[in-house]
Amino acid sequence: MAKHLLVIDDDPAVRRSLAAALEGDGLRVTLAATAAEGQALYLRETPDVVVLDLFLPDRHGLEVLKTLRAGDPEAAVIVVTASDDVRDGVEAMKLGALEYLVKPYDLDALRVLIGRTVSRQREVQELGAHRRQQSQRYTFEALASENPACAAMVATARKLATSPTVTLLLEGETGVGKEFMARAVHHASPRAAGPFTAISCAAIPETLLESELFGHEAGAFTDARSRKRGLFELAEGGTLLLDEVAEMVPATQAKFLRVIEARSFRRVGGTEDLTVDTRIIAATNAVLERAVEAKRFREDLYYRLKVGHLVIPPLRDRPEDLLPLAGRLLADICRELRRPVPALSPAVQEAFRAYHWPGNVRELRNVLERAVILHEGTGSIEPAHLPPLSGPATAGSATLTDIEREHILRVLEHHGGNQTKAAKALGISRNTLWEKLKQYRSGGNR
Predict the structure, then answer these.
(1) Which residue in 183, 295, 299, 392 is deepest, having the highest Cβ count within 10 Å?
(2) CA-to-CA distance for 155 and 308, rounded, in angstroms?
(3) pLDDT tens per residue, range 187-198
């Protein structure tokens, strides 16, 4: 659909020339000669961009701008005027105009501004859609638990989310869902409209981590050719997740502590203190208290971080959540892949309950995603669709691979060794079954 431009200008020659030129650029152009007509058209048609003259016969353009922005804070307005009084331009920008042009202006310059504004509007719309999608995905409802300890932890997280300045510390094994929890807190907080930014302190070399977090000035070190804003600045008004915070080196820990205490910092090589309004969430798969005892992590920083302390239990400690969680993840995966949601067969449910899940929720999701991809669209997900996972379930228990093998051989025996019938009953192709049997005969997947 062509982008829609509303021109509000009392000069008929200007209106005609703009319509002729901009419609040739593929824009749909609507014209208004007065403030009243322009405001009525805006309410009725909600154009993408407005070109607004300041001197109108029935109302000053700055009043029109104020009215448009009051009714629609996202209104994209380019102000034009025959006056060269800079104060009008300053006031227009204060009221939310995106650009300001003085007549006679170059038509090509206006075209560029309109193109830039349309692109900006598209980015704003895409960002808004992305944030709405994220807020629908990362919810506390998705963290619902039948386990009393986990349910209490989620209830505490809900309360902490409403206090936008409280620093949080999330502890838990790899894959338990610490980032999911951080995002849920962000989207349930007054900061939800702001950015959510995440960084792994272990993934960035220690020589670069300080620059990534705090930014740097031009010339601060070799290759610092220009000023760079750090993640604390980029997360302004939102939330910054520092994952694997236990890997942060002492020098960076000291600067990080200052951000928490004073809400200010300096870029690397800078002399100016910058204030920051960002909620900080730290996460670690280590027990941070032990790092403090070992003198690898500052004690004062530890206590600053754990104002809001949440320990997310591993999946093996909340078995009552396993199958409901698998159902929610399966629905999410199928929605992303645009496939119908299959059921988990009793054999798969048995396998899931028997397995130890050392990789926690992340591993469960990966297993389900692979199963959906291998599933051929009919019947339930069967053990044959599961990956060849290994590792203990609980002491003395079988692995998923063992359970898969036993199930396949049992079905094959039930069908008298007929591979075609067995494959159909298992919900897999005959070639997949043949490959599985070949592996079993050769001693693989044990």
Answers:
(1) 183
(2) 12
(3) 999 999 899 999
